[in-house]
# Entry
Amino acid sequence: MIPDTKVVKTPKVAVIGCGNIGSRWDETARQDAVLTHAGAWHRLQALTALADMDPERLATAGRFWGVTALYADYRALLAEVRPDIVSIATPTGLRLPLVEAALASGARAILLEKPIALTLDEALAIKAVCGTEVVVAVNYLRRYDPTLQALAAQIHAGRLGTIQHVVGRYGKGIVENGSHWIDLIQWWFGAVQRVRVLRRLPDDRPDHDPTLDAVLEIGGAVPIYLLAVDHRHYSLFEMDIVGTKGRVTLTKRGSRLQHWEAEPDALFPGYRVLQLEGDLHADLGLGLLRAAKDLLAVWRGEQIKPSCTLEDGIAALRTVLALRETAQGEKSELS
Ligand SMILES: NC(=O)c1ccc[n+]([C@@H]2O[C@H](COP(=O)([O-])OP(=O)(O)OC[C@H]3O[C@@H](n4cnc5c(N)ncnc54)[C@H](O)[C@@H]3O)[C@@H](O)[C@H]2O)c1
# Structure
């Protein structure tokens, strides 16, 4: 009998930027979590090389992951290692030149941190250089979670009925953290069409990334109320979706999902009330591993596109920039 000789290809993967999300969080976090790019590719036995301009950070990450191909200059890494996949976890200001250099060295798949760029022009330039040949997966990590993917399917199938409104809370900047929230909204309800800013929170965020209270409108002028909290006290990332047939709340960083459905009230005749139907958990501790696996499946030709595409990243950026510009009095409509 001829043995099954189907070969599963393992790519060479380079991580550029070994800070918090590149490597550091996994150097100290719980053992079973995968919070970083290096951790995810290490778990998939594909981590080949690391780059960081900070020599101490680079050496620490290299020791932790047992990687010896270490580069202070990412261009040298790309020239010598020629990775198949490049994970980009540098600060947001450094994206386009890195993507260009990765593609020039032969990489055909990129795991890109969010927000994908500082400006829409840069984001569109990334899209232009990637064209249709290069696959980019963006790390809006909740997109890769099966529990939240099932919720997306239910919302799209109308299980909540017509959406009456959505209320949410977030902190630490509309671009940095608010973009995760906006990405969920656009994933589940489509493009935001109009934004209004109610107030800027007096926290410690810089002008280029203020934390804002805002009202967003999706199709049919459904209002979405986004409320800012001061991250210096604690982190909060929540969403409450109220439809005509039921309600979903996301709490605990968006990892606990409770689903209520409208049913006849057992006590007061003629009324309908909400009953808890489901209480589910999304494991954000596996978000990056899932993102890396998702991209790997596309790279191997097992999947057509990543669960969070470059276009999704551009859409999130477009809306958060519109919010920021509105706060600065420059804009009020999304075009
Ligand atoms: N998806 C998420 O939930 C999530 C969470 C945290 C951060 N992020 C994003 O990840 C990115 C990085 O954030 P962070 O908190 O890890 O930042 P960080 O400052 O901890 O790490 C960035 C690392 O990049 C290195 N670096 C900078 N310029 C470089 C260069 N030219 N070549 C090589 N290395 C370079 C720095 O030395 C540093 O170690 C940001 O865009 C941030 O928004 C996303």
User: Anything to note?
Assistant: The longest helix spans residues 310-327.
